[in-house]
Design a protein that fits this description.
Helix 7 packs across helix 9 (225-243). The protein is built from 13 helices and 10 strands. 47% of the residues lie in helices and 15% in strands. It has 2 domains: 2-52 and 162-324, Rossmann fold (3-Layer(aba) Sandwich), CATH 3.40.50; 54-160, Rossmann fold, CATH 3.40.50. The strands form 2 sheets. Strands 1-2-10-7-8-9 form a 6-stranded mixed beta sheet. Strands 5-4-3-6 form a 4-stranded parallel beta sheet, sandwiched between helices. The mean pLDDT is 97. Strand 4 (97-102), helix 5 (113-119) and strand 5 (123-126) form a beta-alpha-beta unit. The chain binds pyridoxal-5'-phosphate. The site of pyridoxal-5'-phosphate (PLP) has 18 residues, from helix 4, strand 7 and helix 8. Pyridoxal-5'-phosphate binds at residues 52-53, 82-83, 159, 161, 193-200, 292, 318-320.
């Protein structure tokens, strides 16, 4: 185990966020569900920009960018992308130039993450309603153009759900295990969202390497299990190449992928998730959002109600605070 920890620690990262993130109980839901104990790990409070999971990912990604002597970060996503805003904020801190590329039109009503982008004067390119493939083509062309101008750009790929990005959540699970020891709390199960699968891949890989102290439940917010499984395995392969520690497991044996709560997919509410966005802050004073966190909570509470969860449980709050203000 010492060897594994040493190898993981040898993967360098820059320091951007505030860690460890807090862990605390949500006692009003414990009472309502008559369940002990339900924890929340506050990865919405990672300390830069509107916070959220991407800060952990960027600590590793920006290290790679520094190693490659990059001076400009190219980040892309849909309008209201959490990643684009968080990357732009983190670039300010790290003194990288940053260009954000959005596949969408610039709306007249500037709100949510877009407002935050304006406040930090990010260099935003709105390229109209094009596909993700066309957005990638635009990014590649911009990359070439900048290189010809003597710049050294670095492209953040796949919404930061890459091997380096997922290292952030390998690190997060080690952090959570340490918190369990320090705070003397015996968390048995974890719930987190799965979209491209970066958060999931990091948690699953890290947990397996630690000897599976937690049961990992990934609530899909986008794809059916088969695709999510493939995405996670792709990213785990990238992590293996970085750490040089093989992952010799069948995913089915080391995590529980759940695609029952994703509704019609990414960004499309279910009745229950829509309700949760109001219910959760009303009872706990903590805001969640529509796309990722609400569906995880719906799934976690439902499985608790159906007695499919054992022992103390922890919801990983991955943030998305900026986009919440763009969702109404
Ligand atoms: C707030 C929030 N939570 C969770 C995720 C899911 O991450 P992944 O794509 O790694 O599954 C994202 C991804 O953009 C996100 O913005």
């Amino acid at each position: 185990m010492k060897d594994i920890r040493a190898k993981l620690n040898s993967v360098k990262k820059v320091s951007i966020g505030c860690f460890p993130t807090p862990v605390h109980r949500i006692t009003n839901f414990e009472k309502e569900l008559n369940y002990k104990k339900i924890y929340i790990k506050r990865d919405d409070l990672t300390g830069v920009g509107p916070g959220g999971n991407k800060i952990r990912c960027l600590e590793y990604i920006f290290q790679e960018a520094l190693d490659k002597k990059a001076d400009t970060i190219l980040v892309s996503g849909p309008v209201q992308s959490n990643l684009c805003t968080i990357a732009a904020c983190a670039c300010r801190k790290m003194n990288f130039d940053c260009i954000s590329i959005f596949n969408g039109d610039k709306p007249e009503d500037i709100k949510g993450n877009m407002l935050l982008d304006e406040l930090i004067s990010s260099d935003a390119h709105y390229i109209g309603k094009v596909t993700e493939e066309d957005r990638s083509k635009y990014v590649d062309e911009l990359n070439m153009k900048l290189k010809n101008e003597g710049k050294n750009p670095y492209i953040i790929k796949n919404g930061a759900s890459t091997g380096y990005g997922a290292m952030g959540y390998v690190n997060a699970i080690i952090e959570l295990q340490q918190q369990c020891w320090d705070l003397n709390i015996g968390i048995k199960e974890i719930f987190a969202p799965g979209a491209n699968g970066g958060v999931a891949a990091g948690l699953i890989y890290g947990n397996a390497l630690l000897g599976s102290p937690f049961k990992i439940n990934i609530i899909s917010v986008e794809y059916e299990n088969k695709i999510l499984n493939e995405n996670i395995m792709e990213i785990i392969k990238e992590i293996e190449a970085i750490t040089d520690i093989p992952f010799n497991y069948n995913l089915k044996n080391v995590c529980n992928l759940v695609d029952d709560y994703r509704g019609m997919g990414w960004g499309l509410n279910t009745d229950e998730s829509k309700e949760m966005v109001f219910d959760f802050p009303k009872k706990e004073g903590v805001f969640i959002e529509n796309i990722y966190t609400s569906k995880v909570l719906v799934g976690m509470f439902d499985l608790i109600k159906k007695s499919k969860v054992n022992g103390s449980v922890c919801f990983i709050h991955t943030g998305g605070f900026g986009s919440l203000f763009g969702q109404f």
